[in-house]
Inverse folding.
């Protein structure tokens, strides 16, 4: 989800509980585990507790399974969302036509020119912090709207400053230190581009710390003055997102074994599923009614289509091109990065909570 959101909604009738926004995307337990980061923290703690044990292999298997179920399918679901009808395709024509063609061209070039593929990987890694934090911010603001916690103009700026400072800090680190640039990803050597100085990185770190302090003061001040607590699901979502980029290198590597699938990918799929089902069942479908709708033939067909498309994109096409004589690792990396380019760019366009077509389905 994009960070371009509004946090005010029409006031609801306090005497009519059914007319009030539902505080969760799907269900309290599901949200806390798969949207706010609960399952990530559990797996992360287990990994450290079992460090050096053979049982860590089981956690790595869990990580790999999560990538297949949540991470790869969440990018594939973008295609089903934006291409689902002629009206939607026309409305987002810039993405469905021009961005798609540009990404396709880059994929072909990456497959044909092996020396280009590592650059595609590097650009993807530089895009990840903004995409990841923008979605975390969007989910957090969604929880604020659902809890009828209205942020003022300056409060929104404080939250955005904190979120954006995390993005800046992460990107600056990649462009300053070799250990933060990485060595290999998707079987491709990651180019090291030392474009920035140590002083700039220290400045980005100071900005992050300062904005975190201001954010904490804002939350405490609001709680003292009005008795309103920044919604706990929103706090947990931001905390998990921030943690993914501020830990030490080794700890970050372990955290990312789980956070991509069981936080970023899963929360995106939850939002997509909620919107798709509500478009079919009505915006007032929420709580247990919404969960039951997740098992209707319509919803199950959507989930099956998402899974099938992800298998085709990430396994089928690279496998077919490998049989045609192309190198599987290069093909897979070129397709993965360019599909994610499309996902990241399109995601920033279609998931704006200022858009009534989006907020009417997600906030209620």
């Amino acid at each position: 989800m994009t960070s371009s959101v509004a946090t005010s909604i029409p006031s609801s009738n306090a005497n009519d509980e059914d007319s009030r926004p539902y505080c969760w995307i799907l269900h309290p337990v599901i949200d806390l585990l798969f949207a706010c980061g609960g399952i990530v923290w559990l797996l992360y703690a287990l990994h450290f507790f079992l460090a050096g044990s053979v049982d860590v292999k089981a956690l790595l298997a869990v990580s790999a399974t999560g990538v297949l179920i949540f991470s790869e399918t969440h990018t594939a679901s973008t295609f089903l969302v934006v291409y689902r009808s002629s009206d939607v395709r026309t409305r987002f024509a810039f993405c469905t036509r021009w961005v798609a063609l540009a990404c396709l061209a880059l994929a072909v070039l990456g497959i044909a020119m092996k020396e280009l593929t590592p650059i595609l990987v590097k650009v993807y890694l530089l895009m990840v912090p903004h995409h990841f934090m923008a979605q975390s911010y969007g989910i957090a603001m969604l929880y604020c709207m659902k809890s009828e916690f209205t942020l003022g103009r300056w409060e929104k700026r404080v939250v955005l400053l904190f979120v954006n400072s995390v993005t800046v800090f992460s990107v600056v680190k990649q462009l300053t230190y070799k250990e933060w640039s990485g060595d290999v990803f998707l079987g491709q050597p990651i180019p090291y581009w030392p474009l920035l100085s140590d002083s700039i990185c220290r400045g980005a770190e100071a900005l992050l710390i300062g904005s975190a302090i201001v954010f904490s003061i804002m939350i405490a001040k609001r709680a003292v003055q009005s008795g309103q607590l920044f919604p706990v699901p929103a706090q947990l979502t931001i905390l998990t997102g921030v943690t993914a980029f501020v830990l030490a290198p080794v700890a970050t590597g372990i955290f990312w074994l789980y956070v991509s699938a069981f936080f970023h990918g899963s929360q995106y799929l939850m939002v997509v599923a909620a919107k798709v089902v509500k478009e079919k069942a009505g915006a007032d479908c929420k709580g247990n009614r919404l969960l039951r709708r997740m098992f209707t033939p319509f919803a199950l067909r959507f989930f099956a289509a998402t899974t099938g498309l992800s298998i085709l994109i990430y396994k089928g096409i690279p496998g077919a091109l490998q049989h045609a004589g192309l190198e599987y690792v290069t093909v897979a990396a070129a397709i993965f990065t360019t599909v994610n380019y499309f996902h990241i760019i399109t995601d920033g366009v279609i998931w704006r909570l200022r858009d009534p077509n989006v907020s009417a389905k997600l906030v209620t």
Summary: Residues 21-149+251-362 form one domain. Confidence is low (pLDDT under 50) at residues 3-17. Residues 176 and 199 are 10 Å apart (CA to CA).
